[in-house]
Amino acid sequence: MNKNIFNLSSEEKIQFIEDCYSREITNEEVSLLSELLKDKDKGVRNSVSFFFINSDHELVPFKVVEYVKSSDTSIRNMAGDILLKKGADSVTALLNFIDLGNADDKKFCIDILGLIGNQEACPKIISELEKSQNDNLTLACLEALGNLKCPEIEKIVAPIYNKNELFKPTIIEAFGKAGSDEVIQFLIDVFDEEDELIKYAIIESLGLIGKPETVNFLLGRIKSESYVLVGPVVNSIYQLVNKYNLECTSSDQVIEKIVAASDFIDQNHSMAAVSFLANHINEDVMFVFYKLFGKDFDVDMVIRQVFDNNLEPFLTLLSSYLAIPNNNTMDLLNYFKEIIYVSPEIVRNVCESPNSRLTNSIVKLLSNKTDEIRAIAAEIILAIDPISGIENVDKLLNDQNVWNRMGYLENFASVLIPFPEEFVKIFLNDRDEMVKERALTLLKEHNLSLSGA
């Protein structure tokens, strides 16, 4: 091959690159092919890029790394992609090039070295960290040392921890990736001095690298830290308990703090929270489970098991929760409907107990602004107390959703024994012809008189 390749059409260049797969290429050919990374045709650039990624020629990474200095971002990123995908074969070329570039070039190479993950890069990156005067380069070095799980990271990095607040989150994240007894102790030692944001990062790192004894430290933080940090702390404990197959006993004080912080626990930490609380069921814990239900399938499986094992408390307390607006009312009603058919005796016992407000709470939902909630509330009333449903027929008749009204008519007429003649006749005066006709059909099917309609 010679430099005439640059005079070829794009199709001919691509064909030539493809022909190179079937033979060994020379150093000169690697140099010439590398020039095609700047070709104006994207297809040519992609073709040579793919060839270099799959080539085992030792010169390839040394020619490609030169494009790290390109002012064209697309070419620079393509070079980075090739070097990264070639993995360990690129390490020497990247390390040699670091001294030839400016701060941005150094950062680019160090980012790639960190992603490749070869610890041979640690000494050079440590050297760059120690002499860096550029914050972005320093941050790149810190992140890379974490990705490389550098054995000396705590010894090298700890002295600069307090030099710049900007570095702290990256240092903590790097420690969380590297992990060692020294790192764990360092994070514990600085914890109480930090603000809430840095504490959050430390807690997350301890969840990744902590040891069994770290659990006691974290349990203490539940009691002493703000509500915002309770979720992350519980989640880190949960990670360590599962990782080391530990038994974690919680004091009443810890459980009370988790309950009190429940409004601050986000979805990422909810599995840890419900796992903590599942063996400490009381009225307050049950309300936390009501609030968390319906947001995550896996979390719901844990909560449902608790509900299944505590059906009477679940039903008894549910009325109070349904009395206030909630975004998961529908989820709880669907679960309630399941219970009616699986455990009808328990439902009946609760509804018939002297102080039960469950039926009333469902009746009130017949006036809910959400169509689906009104519909399922009517189904539940029909199952647990049809008389209350019929007594509240005005709410059913005034439902603005015609399909809800049709559903009320169909369900009550098909389930109630004896057939609710007077209830059905009311629908003969419905404002929708379809509902009227269905009510008329139902009455005729039962050979009933239409008088009084």
Brief sketch in words of this structure:
The chain has 453 residues and is mostly helical. Helices cover 68% and strands 0% of the residues.
Explained architecture:
With 453 residues, the protein is mainly alpha-helical. The chain contains 29 helices and no strands. Helix 8 packs antiparallel against helix 9, helix 17 packs parallel to helix 19 and helix 27 runs parallel beside helix 29. The protein is elongated.
The arrangement of helices and strands along the chain is: HHHHHHHHHHHHHHHHHHHHHHHHHHHHH
Quaternary: single chain
Could you name the ranges where pLDDT drops below 50 across 5 or more consecutive residues? none
Tell me roughly what share of residues is in helical segments: 55-70%
What's the pLDDT, averaged over the residues? 92
Major sheet: none
- Helix and strand content put the structural class at mainly alpha
Total strand segments = 0
Query: What is the 3D shape?
Result: elongated
> Tally the helices: what do you get?
29
The N- to C-terminal Cα distance equals 97 Å
Strand content: under 5%
